[in-house]
Design a protein that fits this description.
549 residues, 9-stranded mixed β-sheet, 7-stranded mixed β-sheet
Amino acid sequence: MKMAYPLLLSNFLERVNRLYAKKEIVSRDFSGEMRYTYGDFYRRVTKLANALEKLGVERQDRVATFAWNNHRHLELYFAVPAMGAVIHTVNIRLFPDQLVYILNHAADKVIFVDEDLVPILEKVADKLTTVRHFVIMTDRATPLETKLSPVSYYEELLAQSPAGYDFPKDLDENSAAGLCYTTATTGNPKGVVYTHRGIFLHSLAISLPDAAGISETDVIMPIVPMFHANAWGIPFAATMAGAKQVLPGARPDPRTFLQLMEKEKVTLSLGVPTVWMGVMQLLEKENYDLSSLRAVLCGGSAPPRSLIEAFERKTGALFIHAYGMTETYPLVTVARPKSYMKDWPAEKIYEKRAKQGTLVPGLEMKLVNEKGVEVEHNGKELGKLLLKGAWIIEEYYNDPRTAGSFSDGWLRTGDMATIDEEGYVQIMDRAKDLIKSGGEWISSVDLENTIMAHPAVLEAAVIAMPHEKWQERPLACVVLRPEYRGKVTQEDILDFLRDKVSKWWLPDRVDFLESIPKTSVGKFSKRQLREWYAANNFERPAMAAGQGS
């Protein structure tokens, strides 16, 4: 049946041009700062749509982006799907073989690449079987020397293209608008297709007051990369609302984020816990006026409670913990206290806020045990988390692994969780990261977050090490803050934990490291830790200089 009003991304685009053409977009570009309005943005998007047609892009063709968070990337977010093609946002930190795999698997026709990332594509270009054209995104006046061919330049394409474009209204709202690939821990990344309808409904959900509460009055800075689950859908939602957007550009660091927050009066920002840890480190040394900041949204992995408390104490902004996956666009739950909890003791409220939160409208969830029976809502019984709903995918793109992850319309997330009587979900671990010791499950996430509450600890990751009697025991990998190196020992960490966790959860060993490896999207990479320790027979590494013993 034909939809009377299909939910298309062109609706967001036309709305923001009609109602908020004077609102500003700020982008940290390679040669400085780019400032323009949504009206300017709309004209450039129409030029880009015409340029894409000239390059031979047709409906449902895949167009790849290999770029940072900047205004050109935002223009592609709308021009590509609004004209009926599919935007494929590619993780710029992938290994070369993974990069080749996903570009060929997606069958991308055109690739748009930021100027500083051109050398990465040059190394794999001869292995790309479907790409017909490369477009370099730069504001330089002179062309770059490159091996990419055939190649065009973004600004030249726009200059040669007319403004004005009739975005099709006959698109199927269930047709593909975007394509992302999961961050693979084993095997090749898996393709996740986002539809117009899914992005539209997800944008409405993440804008709800009990989620991110996005409105026209906001100034929004997504720190989470635009190649990671579409920056959690925020560029779409911000455009829908007409909010000012601040895009931090290439290779930003905590000082970049804080300077932009202060200068542009940012009200809402989003990033993974390691980003906020880095921001907090700098805030402890330097002063910034963050009085405009009302909230930050944190996802990707569970933030330690100590980080939530420290950030709110320092900035006065609300630290919102949320949970999701690439397969869920990604919003699933948000950890906000209910209205009648406002008079609860602070300890009890923080207990709720440290969980992943309650399910957002539009989704269904269940937790099942090993027998497939739903667990009790008591906050104790562990179950496998299953999801379905308005923007939960039902299959992977052209991938036989679909059969192992979907059943009867439910996505099997691979996360182990509990749910309490108030409906607050707590992700205890990825199934593969749980430590099974003497028949009892130990949550590496809980243990890590408790360790990171120690004032001397900057980062902590916990993995299982083999044990003859108990099968597995916890091994804590700890990075100390610079000022504490050489002053904290294993026993100090264990003493700190003794009255906070079960005796059985105490790590058998604490190793002090210079750093913990990160994934391409900034999460702790326990896979790399496990592989390194396994290759070295779980021997204690030589202590990093000055890190204690």
